[in-house]
């Protein structure tokens, strides 16, 4: 069988984190009752006129600068005409001829190999509404809350050759945009969506094969599976002497297969023309400089600083800076308690354990950094022991409770009273002569049993270090 190479390019749509829509003052909040975040502009009523949201332009510029793009200082909007039930105007305001950002790149690393993925352009546009298909009532309903939500579309060059490279590119994009605060990039809520353009060709061939576009991809796992599935489908067609048709396909993750939606449109199919209701955007050197000066500390810089300033191991710094939300929690908690390594230990240990157990992403963490700092201080001061601290942390993780109040209400304070501990230990020794004999006969493990019995007698509230010390003294 001949060897094939996969050629992949991405169109990534990102919902921007503005409070209002791109051309009107309606809310962009996710999850409102259907058609409550709407007005004549975003529902396409005749005679309504768009007014550009300045923050959309600044977020687009910020993403462009962070991905090494050139900013188009004289850019404009265009009308993209198409007729779908969820598109209230029967056109979308987008950018074709003069997109706001061009010719950038993102650097990735896969299996120790570094590679630069080209960005053809980034353009601004408005989102469409959302269709809800009700099979029970046998009808389709439309919600225009999403209509007019600001998007940027990041169009890559066809530089990726594997699902691993695609995921590395998407992760780098998501992290960069989250650090900028331009979007939360939650794929499960649709604020980051990727369409995959994929073709195959024989290894060594100069020409690209016929590409297809894969839609309905809302997680990194489904993207990886869709790439592998479409690659195999196209190779099978070629091997059978058939032609790959240029088309848009929809990936069904449950069935792990795709099906054709429509023939792939080209630009001329959309009959683009300049948007007559919006003036061109003129971006001055000063405006670009101001946006650039507001760029945050990105992951690589932050990672290096954590190692140097806080003495964190490279592995810890790598995990913590992997998402902005986790890095923000670490920094805020460290600022409050002044114990960076101990904050890091709680993030690397219990936080990561609970995230894995509950199948959550770091972005889903809801506890306040000050409550993590309180747990660090309570454990450090010996107010609660390590077992109790883990119980308190789980309550904080689940419900963001106040650790001080929780400890008081559940009577979890550690017993540090030497007299009370000595009394309890003497009783344990008297009740377990066999373990005492074992210890005296060189069985060091016997002391562990006696410590356990003491902790049980003290209902888990004894100071373990003091228990060990007094036990050894009495034995």
UniProtKB/TrEMBL annotation:
Residue ranges of domain Asn/Gln amidotransferase in the record: 328-475
A GO MF term: ATP binding
Superkingdom of the organism of origin: Bacteria
Keywords: ATP-binding, Ligase, Nucleotide-binding, Protein biosynthesis
EC number(s) recorded for this UniProt protein: 6.3.5.-
Quaternary data: Heterotrimer of A, B and C subunits.
Cited HAMAP family: GatB (MF_00121)
Known function: Allows the formation of correctly charged Asn-tRNA(Asn) or Gln-tRNA(Gln) through the transamidation of misacylated Asp-tRNA(Asn) or Glu-tRNA(Gln) in organisms which lack either or both of asparaginyl-tRNA or glutaminyl-tRNA synthetases. The reaction takes place in the presence of glutamine and ATP through an activated phospho-Asp-tRNA(Asn) or phospho-Glu-tRNA(Gln).
Name used for this protein in its record: Aspartyl/glutamyl-tRNA(Asn/Gln) amidotransferase subunit B
Gene from which the chain derives: gatB
């Amino acid at each position: 069988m001949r060897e094939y190479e996969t050629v992949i390019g991405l169109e990534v749509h990102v919902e921007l984190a503005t409070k209002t829509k791109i051309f009107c003052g309606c809310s962009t909040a996710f999850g409102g009752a259907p058609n409550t975040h709407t007005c004549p502009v975003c529902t396409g009523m005749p005679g309504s006129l768009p007014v550009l949201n300045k923050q959309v332009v600044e977020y687009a510029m910020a993403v462009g600068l962070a991905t090494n793009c050139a900013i188009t200082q004289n850019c404009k909007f265009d009308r993209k005409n198409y007729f779908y039930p969820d598109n209230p105007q029967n056109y979308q305001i987008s950018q074709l001829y003069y997109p706001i950002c061009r010719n950038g790149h993102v650097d990735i690393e896969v299996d120790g190999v570094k590679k630069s993925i080209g960005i053809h352009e980034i353009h601004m546009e408005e989102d469409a509404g959302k269709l809800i298909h009700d099979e029970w009532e046998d009808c389709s309903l439309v919600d225009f809350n999403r209509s007019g939500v600001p998007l940027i579309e990041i169009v890559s060059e066809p530089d990726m050759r594997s699902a691993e490279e695609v995921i590395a590119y998407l992760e780098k994009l998501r992290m960069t945009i989250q650090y900028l605060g331009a979007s939360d990039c939650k794929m499960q809520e649709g604020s980051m969506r990727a369409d995959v353009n994929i073709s195959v060709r024989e290894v060594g061939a100069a020409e690209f094969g016929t590409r297809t576009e894969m839609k309905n991809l809302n997680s990194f796992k489904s993207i990886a599976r869709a790439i592998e599935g479409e690659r195999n489908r196209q190779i099978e067609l070629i091997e059978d002497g058939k032609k790959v048709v240029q088309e848009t396909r929809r990936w069904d993750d449950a069935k792990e297969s795709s099906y054709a939606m429509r023939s792939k449109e080209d630009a001329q199919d959309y009959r683009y023309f300049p948007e007559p209701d919006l003036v061109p955007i003129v971006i001055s050197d000063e405006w670009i400089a101001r946006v650039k000066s507001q760029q945050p500390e990105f992951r690589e810089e932050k990672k290096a600083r954590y190692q140097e300033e806080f003495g964190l191991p490279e592995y810890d710094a790598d995990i913590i800076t992997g998402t902005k939300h986790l890095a923000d929690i670490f920094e805020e908690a460290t600022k409050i308690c002044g114990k960076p390594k101990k904050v890091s230990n709680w993030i690397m240990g219990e936080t990561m354990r609970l995230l894995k157990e509950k199948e959550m992403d770091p972005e889903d963490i809801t506890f306040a950094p000050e409550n993590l700092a309180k747990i660090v201080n309570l454990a450090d001061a010996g107010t609660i022991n390590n077992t109790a601290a883990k119980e308190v942390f789980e309550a904080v993780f689940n419900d963001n409770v106040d650790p001080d109040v929780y400890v008081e209400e559940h009577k979890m304070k550690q017993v540090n009273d030497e007299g009370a501990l000595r009394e309890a230990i003497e009783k344990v020794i008297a009740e377990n002569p066999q373990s005492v004999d074992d210890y005296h006969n060189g069985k060091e493990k016997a002391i562990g049993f006696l410590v356990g019995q003491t902790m049980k007698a003290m209902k888990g509230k004894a100071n373990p270090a003091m228990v060990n010390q007094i036990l050894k003294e009495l034995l």
